[in-house]
Structure formats: structure tokens, C-alpha cells
Design brief:
By secondary structure, the chain is an alpha/beta fold. The protein folds into three domains: about 80 residues, Rossmann fold (3-Layer(aba) Sandwich); about 220 residues, 3-Layer(aba) Sandwich (UDP-N-acetylmuramoyl-L-alanine:D-glutamate ligase), CATH 3.40.1190.10; about 140 residues, Mur ligase, C-terminal domain (Protein-Tyrosine Phosphatase, Chain A). It contains 14 helices and 23 strands. The strands form four sheets. Strands 8-7-9-6-12-13-14-15-16-17 form a ten-stranded mixed β-sheet, sandwiched between helices. Strands 18-19-23-20-21-22 form a six-stranded mixed β-sheet, sandwiched between helices. Helix 5 packs across helix 8 and helix 13 packs parallel to helix 14.
Length: about 475
């Protein structure tokens, strides 16, 4: 276990990442002196950290470790050759990766609910935390995103549960293990398992092995909450030494949703636990994937002792996450939405949900292939089907094509051409200004536009919002005319 002096000094290398920045602030709340460094120090993270009382240094230098801190936390974006990491190694300064620190300082004395899966982790983590918070349980939580229901992406809390997003990505250059293996799950949620992170996993079997490992460390008095509709998840469950409860839409699931129907602000569904009807619930999110996310969070809430009334109230009041189907507003009769989807399955689920919610409106998908996997051709062919619910598709540039390494690269132009051949209207435009200009020239009242990226996308979202706000209102389509192309 980690042992530090009271008010000791902790230095974080690559502090401006979302998770590292949250950890820095959490450590500061515990009373430690916290410093950090990063190559790119700029708002909003720099403002957030300084506002939390954290000293930040721009760039990496061995001198940043003078005098030696009591502990160095090395982020997973840091490689050998980083001067601060090299100094920590050479001078034998104690160092750990982020999940080790989270485990020892924040999870050991709590009841961790660890939310895992290829898709839906962030939304489900925030929703489970919100259910507990709205029921007065004051949970701790750490989520890799910006929840709209909380002022920060973390909370120490005083309640017994700590809800944490369990990432399958590796932990540090010296800890090539999935982060979730450190998090001591008492409750383990597995939303789904698919091949992803082609930069660190060779194939699906390697990802399955990591999930099999985390299932194996859930204690016998713990609980595995697993998506019973997912065949890969299902085949791992017989290995669990802990009790298992499944959730999903299938009739065999222990926690099941049915009677799903859209409503004005999202969708409604009825939930059953075994043969018991829990009630009718509402969430302000579209898509069956978000019903499953809600069921997973309900499972955590039931484990913590919440009743159906508390669950219903919490689900209905959940505002969601920034960049997860986040409404940007309606401008000139055009609905604009920001989303984080960056995998074919997530893209398809997002678009299917939006198509269900807006069946007669023209749907635009504006996509940036910004993930490390999307620098490669790995998923390129799958995007043809994933974009099926959209009428018009705009594909941006790959921001960091060098991440493809020796693998065949992703080609936005080739994908746009294949989409055109399949009957979609599709364009490849490399620059954010060109994408914004094309949209401003082409959009008309009634259109729904969803921007999908796990990167910055050159600020194209705001460019379009501002451009529509300045432009004269486009002509309204004739009465009775459908908006779909």
C-alpha cells in the first residue's frame, strides 16, 4: 500500500490529461502539495488546475523534480526518454501509475463499483453516480468526461460507494495492464466487449483475456453485472467466482427492459427484475444502447439499496454528459448535437437512436476519425454499415495519421467514395473550416446534425453554431415535404 507523509509532495507527469487532472485535484483535496507538468499547458485544463491550487510547469525537465517529491505519478501518455520519467528512475524517486494511486488512496476503504466495457462506460459511470447522489448516498466517483449533473468529473464523497470508470487501456509504460485491474471491484459492470484499441491489443482474444482477469478478482461477496445480450460477455461469465446478474433486453436477462418507446425528451421503458415489475422509467437519451446503460446503472443502484422511486427520480433527472449526445441547440430550425462516438458500433448506435427519435428529418453525420484505431484501416469497412441511418455523411481528416505505424492507414476519401456507392451522400473534407462552410451552405430547416469525434475536430461544432446564428434564416421547406434526402 502507498504510504506518504502528511501534506507530502506529489508530482504528476503529463498532468493535463482528463484523468490525470482530476487525480491532481483529488490529491489536493486530501491535503497534499501537488505539482504537475505537461508539454501542452493551456485552457481550460490549465485554468482548472491552477484554480484547484496546483502548480503547473510547461514542458518536461529533470529540474522539475528538484527537490525530489515524495511520489511521482507517471501518466500513460509518457514514454521512456521523457526527462522527468528518466530522472525519477535514475534517482529512485518512488513512482506509480494513475490507477495504483487511485486504488491505494481512494478505493481501499470504499466499496468500488467499477464500470467497464468497450462502449458506454462514461455515461454509465456518471449515471450510476447520479442515481446514488440524487438518493442522498453521497458517493465518490471518477469519470473520464464532463458530467452535466456535477460541477466536476470527480467527487470524494462520504458515502460507502465509489463509482469509477474502468478503462481497458493500459496504465503506463511500466504497467502494460488494463487500468480496471487495479480498481478492486466489489461491483463490476461489463457493458459490452468488442475489439478496440488496435494500438495496444492485437485482436479480440487479447481484450477478452483482460476482461477475464478482472472478472476473476471480484470477491465472492461481490457482484458482476453483465450485459446478457452481448455474446462475448456471456461466454466469459461462467468463469466468474462471484455471483452474476445479467441486464439487457433479452427475456433471459435478470434485469430486463421492454416496452421501449420514444418520448418528447428521450425515451421511456419498463424494467423488470426477474418476474418483478420495477416500474416505468424515463431517460433523456435516445437509442437502445442507452437503455442498457440505464439498466446497468439501475443494477448498481439496486445493489446499494435504492428503491424503484429513487431510481426513477434519478433516471429522469439525469442531464447526461458533455459530448455524449449533448444538445448544442436548435439554430435556424436545425438541431445540432455533439457526440463522442469513435467506433463503428458506437456510431451505429448513436445514429440509430437519432433516426428513431427523428424518423422524418434529414440526418447528417459529421465524423472525425481521431482515435488511434481510426488511424488504421482496421474499422474502415465497418463504417459503411454504421453510417447507414444517416442521409448525409461528412468525413474529416485523420488528425494524427502517424499513429497507424506500419499498419495500412485509414482513408477518409476512400470511405466517402464507398459510402457514395452504397447510396449515401458523402463528402471528405479535410479542414474544419471547409466542413463548416459546406454545412452552412447545405443545411436547411428540419435537419439534424450530429458531430462525432473523440478529439477536438478543429472546433467545427462551434463554427457551425456561430455561422448559423449569423446567417439569414434558410427558406422553410414546403408544407408536407419530408426532410430526408
Amino acid at each position: 500500500m502507498l504510504s506518504l507523509p502528511d501534506k507530502g509532495h506529489i508530482h504528476l507527469i503529463a498532468v493535463c490529461g482528463t484523468a490525470m487532472g482530476s487525480l491532481a485535484a483529488m490529491l489536493r483535496q486530501l491535503g497534499y502539495r501537488v505539482t504537475g507538468s505537461d508539454l501542452h499547458v493551456y485552457p481550460p485544463m490549465s485554468d482548472f488546475l491552477r484554480g484547484e491550487g496546483i502548480e503547473i510547469q510547461s514542458g518536461f525537465a529533470a529540474e522539475h523534480l528538484d527537490p525530489a517529491p515524495d511520489l511521482v505519478v507517471i501518466g500513460n501518455a509518457v514514454s521512456r526518454g521523457n526527462p522527468e520519467a528518466e530522472a525519477a528512475l535514475e534517482r529512485r524517486i518512488p513512482y506509480l501509475c494513475l490507477p495504483e494511486v487511485v486504488r491505494d488512496l481512494f478505493l481501499r476503504q470504499r466499496r468500488p463499483a467499477v464500470i467497464t466495457g468497450t462502449h458506454g462506460k462514461t455515461t454509465t459511470t456518471a449515471l450510476a453516480a447520479h442515481l446514488l447522489q440524487s438518493a442522498g448516498r453521497d458517493p465518490g466517483f471518477l469519470v473520464a468526461g464532463i458530467p452535466r449533473d456535477f460541477p466536476r468529473p470527480y467527487q470524494l464523497g462520504s458515502g460507502e460507494y465509489f463509482v469509477i470508470e474502468g478503462d481497458e487501456y493500459d496504465s503506463a509504460f511500466f504497467a502494460k495492464y488494463a487500468k480496471f485491474l487495479y480498481y478492486l471491484p466489489e461491483v463490476l459492470v461489463i457493458n459490452n466487449i468488442e475489439f478496440d484499441h488496435a494500438d495496444i491489443y492485437r485482436d479480440l482474444s487479447e481484450i477478452e483475456r483482460a476482461f477475464a482477469q478482472v472478472i476473476n478478482i471480484v470477491p465472492g461477496n461481490g457482484l458482476v453485472l453483465a450485459n446478457g445480450d452481448d455474446p462475448v460477455v456471456s461466454r466469459l461469465l461462467p468463469r466468474s467466482p462471484a455471483p452474476v446478474q445479467t441486464f439487457g433486453l433479452g427475456s433471459a436477462c435478470d434485469l430486463r427492459a421492454g416496452e421501449i418507446r420514444p418520448c418528447e425528451a428521450g425515451q421511456r421503458f419498463t424494467a423488470w427484475r426477474g418476474g418483478e415489475r420495477l416500474g416505468e422509467f424515463r431517460v433523456e437519451m435516445t437509442g437502445q444502447h442507452n437503455v442498457r446503460n440505464a439498466l446497468a446503472a439501475v443494477g448498481v443502484g439496486l445493489r446499494a439499496g435504492l428503491d424503484a422511486e429513487e431510481l426513477g427520480r434519478g433516471l429522469a433527472s439525469f442531464k447526461g454528459m458533455k459530448r455524449r449526445q449533448e444538445p448544442l441547440g436548435e439554430v435556424a430550425g436545425i438541431t445540432l448535437i455533439d457526440d463522442f462516438a469513435h467506433h463503428p458500433t458506437a456510431v451505429a448506435a448513436t445514429l440509430q437512436g437519432l433516426r428513431q427519435a427523428h424518423p422524418d428529418r434529414r440526418l447528417w453525420a459529421v465524423f472525425e476519425p481521431a482515435s488511434a484505431s481510426n488511424a488504421r484501416r482496421t474499422f474502415e469497412d465497418r463504417y459503411v454499415e454504421a453510417f447507414g441511418p444517416a442521409d448525409c455523411v461528412v468525413i474529416g481528416a485523420v488528425p494524427r495519421p502517424e499513429r497507424a505505424g506500419q499498419d495500412p492507414p485509414f482513408s477518409p476519401a476512400r470511405l466517402a467514395g464507398t459510402l457514395e456507392q452504397s447510396g449515401r451522400r458523402a463528402w471528405h473534407l479535410a479542414a474544419a473550416d471547409d466542413i463548416a462552410g459546406h454545412l452552412l451552405d447545405s443545411l436547411r430547416p428540419g435537419d439534424v446534425v450530429v458531430f462525432m469525434s473523440n478529439g477536438a475536430f478543429g472546433g467545427v461544432q462551434q463554427k457551425v453554431v456561430e455561422g448559423l446564428g449569423r446567417a439569414p434564416s434558410p427558406a422553410t421547406p414546403a408544407a408536407g415535404t419530408q426532410h430526408r434526402a
